[in-house]
Amino acid sequence: MRQMLAAILNATWKPRKGFAVSKMEEEARRAKSGSRVWFNPSVRLSDVTAPSVGPKDLLVRVKACGICGSDLHMQETDAEGYMLYPGLTKLPVVIGHEFSGEVIQVGSGVSGFKAGDMVTAEEMWWCGECDPCRTGYPNQCLNLEEAGFTADGGFAELISVHQKYCWKINGLLSAYGSEDKAYEAGSLAEPTAVSYNALFIRAGGFKPGSNVVVYGAGPIGLSSIALAKASGAEKVVCFDVSDPRLQIASLVGADFAFNSEELAIKGIRPHEKVLEITGGAGADMQVEAAGAPDRTLPEMEKSLAIGGKIAVIGRADVLAPVYLESFQVRAGQIFGSQGHSGSGIFPNVIRLFASGKIDMTRIITRRYSLSEFGDAVKQASKRVDAKITVKP
Fold first, then answer.
1. Every domain of the chain and the residues it spans
2. Do 3-187+359-391 and 194-336 have matching folds?
3. Facing residues of 35 across strands?
4. What are the pLDDT digits (tens) for 184-203?
């Protein structure tokens, strides 16, 4: 049997006191809310058996895989030792979901792909048969599997993926001038697609000339900034607590980038800066990409334009205070967003990359080999880099 190197996440199944898991969750060791169940998580590099290839699968040699905030939250714990990540999880699992690579083998029933193709893939492995899938909500699939969360992901030398989740990125080769750069861009399609889904599919977009505010300058926030600017936003404002990330925010399109901690020292709150910049009108679109809605939503509602929208992407197992009167009076709306599948999102993002409308490779600040995965995670945990990419 072929062996490969992979980063394996595991933890102890130990539901919190007072939290009831379903019989189905218990039997499958598959948690709908990882932060309520998984205790003492850890990751190790290990040699494991390479994945098999089903009739409709592509065997992909991973060329680039980005470290996401979710990858960190799955390893980090609260004061009681429980995983921070609040989403769907089944362990043990090979983590990593922002990947691209070269097809080295295709299943007997595959059509449209061949060995040698450059591909990226969706992280949301929807079934296509349940009611949400059939009515246009694949990201809410009732039978959802997620690469790097419930199914083996991309921090490995090889990954097997059903063809329906894969998208060719061969066209990026001419756009970026090298395979290496094209694969790096391909690995950024997934986080960019998450932002695209939130801004344009879930929240319905905004009119050119609108003011857009993004809280959080991680990869999701940065791709939101790039997409907003490319789509005609007049002013794009970003708030974060990391100066290096704020510099990247300016690079990808933010007109104003503020360190919210430094503002606080001066007695200034983010919503006050937004109102100042917009002449009191407020923001037409605001994006929660910080994973701190308990702190960001109160600021957003105080700087909400008439008809303003809020897209919530960041994941956090906390309650967020919302004064609904603000939304009623100002005709505001909040949109929850998860995933990136359906609605032509992936091919649209890839075309944006190929056309040069946005270049997300500029957010990559460090690169590591898979054998250096532990060092990559330590660096990513400092939250100063915009994107760290692992290249098996």
1. 3-187+359-391, 194-336
2. no
3. none
4. 999 999 999 999 999 999 99
| Structure confidence at residue 392 as a pLDDT band (50, 70, 90) | confident
The span from the CA of 68 to the CA of 50, in Å, is 23
pTM above 0.90, yes or no: yes
- Say which of 33, 73, 195, 271 is annotated catalytic: 73
What is the residue-averaged pLDDT of the chain? 96
> Using 50, 70 and 90 to split pLDDT, how confident is the model at 378?
very high
Residue 218 CB burial class (10 angstroms; 0-12, 13-18, ≥19): buried
Round to whole Å and give the CA distance between 184 and 209. 31
**Catalytic residue status for 70:** yes
If you write DSSP's letter for every residue of 83-147 in order, what string do you get?
Answer: BS--S-EESSEE---EEEEEEEEE-TT--S--TT-EEEE-SEE--S-SHHHHTT-GGG-TT-EEB
Distance of alpha carbon 109 from its chain centroid, rounded?
31
**Whole-angstrom distance, CA of residue 338 vs CA of residue 194:** 7
Contact 314, 293 (CB under 8 A): yes
**What is the number of H-type helices and E-type strands within the chain?**
14, 20
Give the separation between CA 323 and CA 302, rounded to whole angstroms: 9
Query: Which of the residues 70, 187, 223, 260 is marked catalytic?
Result: 70
Mean pLDDT of 24-28: 92
> Which whole number is the average pLDDT over 249-273?
98
Could you say which of 3.30.450.70, 3.40.50.280, 3.40.50.720, 3.40.50.300 is the CATH number of the domain covering 194-336? 3.40.50.720
Sign of the CA dihedral running 306, 230, 311, 237: negative
- CATH topology assigned to domain 3-187+359-391: Quinone Oxidoreductase; Chain A, domain 1 (3.90.180)
